[in-house]
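How a chain folds remains the central question behind the approach discussed here. In the encoding step, the backbone of a single protein was reduced to a row of integers, each denoting a local shape. We regard such an encoding as a compact summary of how the chain folds. The sequence in question and its structure tokens are set out directly beneath this paragraph:

___
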Amino acid sequence: MYKIVKKEVLNRDVILLEVEAPYVSARCEAGQFVIVRMGEDGERIPLTIADFDREKNTVTLVIQMVGYSTKLMGKLEEGDYFDDCVGPLGQPAPLNEKWNRVVGIAGGLGAAPLYPQLRKLAEMGVKVDVIIGGRSAEYVIFADKFKEFCDNVYIMTDDGSLGGKGFGVDKLKELVANGEKYDHAIAIGPLIMMKFVVLATKEMNLPTAVSLNPIMIDGTGMCGGCRVTVGGETKFACVDGPDFDGFEVDFDECIKRQSFFKEEEHECMMKIGE
């Protein structure tokens, strides 16, 4: 049993849970994830580790309440427990201390998994900027956390309610056009967002890493649900990733795969009246 020691509501759709998981917190690195489960017959849910505290033996998970199981997780409170919290799983993000300056581009919930990667780079002596995007001000998360170590924090919202109006990729194009120079980018967010960031960074000749955690299901490579073509080869996001060279990812295939279980998810949601 894994105790929830802190719960924070970030917005109407997203919660933060800090969970006691000594084995995971002692070994995890930026980019890795866990699988959590509620109840003996509960669904296995892969969640990227947004933060960890080795002294407190905890990991921090940020959960978007969009499906049957994640909506049930939204009802958990401090003092409740997960039956399982397995990890760390996946490969640590391939971060390089030789990079001089890195820009992170986060779309919505992607700010959470991007956070430990940029913080690790800053600890390695790399200069980091971040662009955080959200539908509106309510959906911009972790901005204050990034300000602790980022040289610049740029915010973009679809409706202009906070920061600039537009998408994160728009801000990246503006920065590069104005002479800002980066030698690497990390984009994390919805698949369609990462696709358009990569289309832009290819034109800039700016190497870009992306995280394919949105297509993971089982999290162990056994279900095959997260098969993705990278550089013409079949990879599994949960075992070989979740971080890959964005220039090599077949995003159109990923986007199609993400919709495979919409009918089953709809049936589950009907059970709880959603």
In short: The radius of gyration is 18 Å. The chain has two domains: 2-89, 101-258. The CA atoms of residues 134 and 157 lie 5 Å apart. The chain has nine helices and 16 strands.
